[in-house]
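Let's practice the habit of predicting before peeking. Look at the sequence and jot down your guess about where helices and strands might fall. Then scroll down.
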Amino acid sequence: MLQNINLQKARREGMRANILLVLYTSHPLLATEQTIALTLKEAGESIDGQELRRELDYLEEKELVRIHEKDTVVWKSELTGYGIDVVEGAKNTPPGIAQLFR
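Done guessing? Here is the structure:
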């Protein structure tokens, strides 16, 4: 059971890092949930809408991502300045997100 929990944790942390990379690629444009999910799917990652929103919320709480139009059917997101710094390696990756650079 502990191994399963560790695998789930590693998957969530990796997914968060991949979401940051997708948003970095789309910067300065906003990315919709569908764009993020499709890009991740093309990279071999599978994420459903509820999971994606949960991870975007998490990243927003860490001040890495800004979610626009959260009260609408489709969320649009972008990296914050801090999120850009993390992706570019100028700032350390916070706990809870897979390391982008080692």
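How did you do? The helical segments are 2-26, 33-42, 49-61, 81-88.
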